[in-house]
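Cross-check.
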Amino acid sequence: MVKKRSKRPGLPPGTLAAPAGAYVPATIQMVHYTADSIDERELATVDELAPYLRKEGVTWINVDGLGNVEMIRRLGELLELHPLALEDVLSVPQRPKVDDYDSHLFVVVRMLHFGDTIETEQVSIFLGRNFVVTVQEHPGDCLEPVRQRLRKATGQIQRQGADYLMYSITDAVIDNYFPFLEQMGEVVEQLEDEVVARPSRRILGRIHTVKRHLLDVRRALWPLRDAINALLRDESPLVHKATRLYLRDCYDHTVQVLDIIETYRELAGGLMDVYLSSVSNKMNEVMKVLTVIATIFIPLTFLAGIYGMNFQKMPELHWAWAYPAVWGIMVVTAAVMIALFWRRGWLGKRKDD
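Predicted model, tokenized:
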């Protein structure tokens, strides 16, 4: 649950160091667009960005991987990004937040990857006057719908500024949590049925796994709510008033996801109590059957013990019907006790219940 930081403690502020095992990017994905055109390509070096930054329109620069420290340093020099923000890009994992550096905003969000495993990835976003930079830990993201909207010129993303692009990226990251919640809802519903019908240690392990996944997602989203609220509350010349209306919807989505997560966490916690109750009830049923059997055999054992004593003055030993009589007494005693237990409902429900 806790990732080790590769940066040595005590280094000067702004020191850039790649995380251990970081993916090394080979290229930079760049999208430059205006209201009437779009130019999308891969760049081999950071210096190829310079002509696009001087053009009219918005430039979206995406870097996949944190292994090439020199590339990130050069990107910071070209866009005049603050060294402390660049340090936070490489010092993963960071808590979702918003930092205002006057000439640009630095936003950290956590993108969810789910499948056989659940993990979150840090996405660092720089918002400038005419550019947006996204730096991801690994290739592969949930931002393809944003790219498709730019390619097909659907919606109003091409007619808006860089702040709207930043909103679209953040909104895509948050919306990616909803399919995960749908999957978790199906898992929790399935566990509810199984924990009552077939409680086992395997189900107990699945309950713990669901609780841990929900906790990880909650840790990623809880500070993001405060970060988006900061974008709404703190006025910045880089975020226009019209874009704040969309950010308000983004904030609502974050609150909605958190509410669903809290609901599922309560259900998962309740499943643990249901599991313990089911196991206890199952044990009680077993003990009830054993107790009924033992109770029925107590008087039978008593009778067998009496007539198992070899005294000479026991008149029943010389009767011709003594053996069948003892068996009859035992059968009648057992039948009366079974009928009594059935009437009291200890052997199951009666037909008239």
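The domain at 28-277 is CATH 3.30.460.20 (Beta Polymerase; domain 2). The chain has two domains: 28-277, 286-344. Passed to J.P. for a second look.
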